[in-house]
Amino acid sequence: MQTYKLFENKNHQWLVFGRDPEKPNKIIDTNQYMVVTKRNALLMDPGGIELFATMLAAVIKQVAPDKLTHLFASHQDPDIISSLGLWDQALPEATLHSPWLWEGFIRHFGMDNITFNPIPDEGSKLTLDETSLEFIPAHYMHSSGNFNVYDPEAKILMSGDIGAALESIDAPLFVENFDRHVDKMEMFHKRWMPSNRAKSDWIDRVSKLDIDMMCPQHGRIFQGDDVKRFLDWFDKLEVGVAIQEKE
């Protein structure tokens, strides 16, 4: 598992874990993000059960286990949170922040010790020392209960599956040519995003945010002008279409 630093100031830093060369070939590559403050850390979409040992080893190189006080699951998918039962044993004092809608489903992954904090549909905030993070509603994008994480100080939006691209583990970390990158995103967004109305609602909401980096759970990170390029492209894309091959 490789680790990259995306942002750092006197109060906190953003790290991303991914591009794992030892990942089993038949599971998709994922990005896991962590915000580290003076006394706390938040690990976002910590990954599937197959990645737990690798993720744990990567995380404890950056923070002591007792400093990892918070987890976030944007929705219920196994590639995001099926490792929960193992984190529950490693971090018995931690809190998991996730959509209220998915608590009964997420608990199937195992959660005897970690405290569940349900995020209401309208979103909420989390303060870690001097750093304030916002849980931004992203419902139906692609899950019916779904959230992004926004850091107004770092100007980073962790966008979950929005902006995702399924790529190889040797792909660059950042989008280098947006027009070429579209081919890697188009089918994913057409099929996995079910609602044009929800898409427009999300675009309207995040367009009001000051974003330097948009960080999806799969694929490459958008930065600078590529954030707006993505929003403009996504706004025009018809989603919720199941494609069938013609005989």
From TrEMBL:
Query: Which residue spans traverse the membrane?
Result: none
In the record, what terms sit under GO molecular function?
hydrolase activity
What keywords were assigned to this record?
Hydrolase
Instruction: Give the SUPFAM superfamilies listed for this entry.
Output: Metallo-hydrolase/oxidoreductase
Name the CDD domains on file.
flavodiiron_proteins_MBL-fold
Keyword Ion transport among record annotations? no
Metallo-beta-lactamase domain location: 29-218
Q: Does the keyword Transmembrane helix apply?
A: no
User: What is this protein's record name?
Assistant: MBL fold metallo-hydrolase
Which species does the entry assign this protein to? Thalassotalea algicola
